[in-house]
Amino acid sequence: MALFVPCFVDLIRPEVGVATVRVLRSLGVEVVYPEGQTCCGQPAFNSGFFDEARGVARRFLDVFEREDFDYVVCPSGSCSTMVSRYYPLLFEETPEERGRAEALGGRVREFSDFLANVIGMEDPGASYSGRAVFHAGCHQRRELGVLEEPRRILRGVSGLELLDWEDEELCCGFGGTFSVKMPEVSAAMADQKIRALEKSGADTLISCDPSCLLHLEGRLRRTGHDTRVLHLAQVLDPGRGEV
Fold first, then answer.
1. In degrees to the nearest 10, what's the CA dihedral of 188, 193, 199, 200?
2. Looking at residue 49, what DSSP letter applies?
3. N-term to C-term CA, the chain
4. Which strands form 228-231's sheet, in the order they lie side by side?
5. How many angstroms from the chain centroid is the CA of residue 104?
6. What pTM value is reported for the model?
7. Tens of pLDDT, residues 192-226
8. pLDDT tens-digit series, residues 28-42
9. What secondary structure does DSSP assign to 194-213, as a single string?
10. How far apart are CA 147 and CA 23, in angstroms?
């Protein structure tokens, strides 16, 4: 399989990428990192710069089509959605490129989706001491419909108590460029999630979207909370704590 590392992981949370590789290799998966990969184009797409987004998408297709990978796995529901759902829309007026986008998009799997539905993970073989809530990013929840998979995996982690929390389905407020264009509203939405987290009694926040984690962790630290914030891959990482 090919590993697709989103910008947030590459530039801000590289430890998520390292953990993703270690988890996949511990399961016997051959992981290949195609050189030359860049952003998936989501910021340009969300801002209405479709020509620029198409340029980035063409590069993505070229890079990941160099070899015939069975799957392209990504530790982000948001970026997985961009490639699998929105690339075909970007190329709807060019049938040859649309066909390429649909073919590649059909092989793109968000990390927890790959573990649960392709690998068939039953026992994650991981341990973690803490009481946690899980946040499903909007793309993972509403576009991919990957909701139960990460929870099922987390329930199998020894020592981890997975809690329900109030308004779990609400957006964290990040929304990529939304947080830049409307920072006050974005921060208020994150604070609403933090209030719900406080009520839950959890000491750990887990998600499959590094961008949501970045936003919520920023508000948590700014408001004086020491809640642990982790990607699912970091919870499952057999080498947790190592570089």
1. -170
2. -
3. 23
4. 158-162, 127-135, 204-207, 228-231
5. 18
6. 0.94
7. 999 999 999 999 999 999 999 999 999 999 999 99
8. 999 999 999 999 999
9. HHHHHHHT-SEEEES-HHHH
10. 20
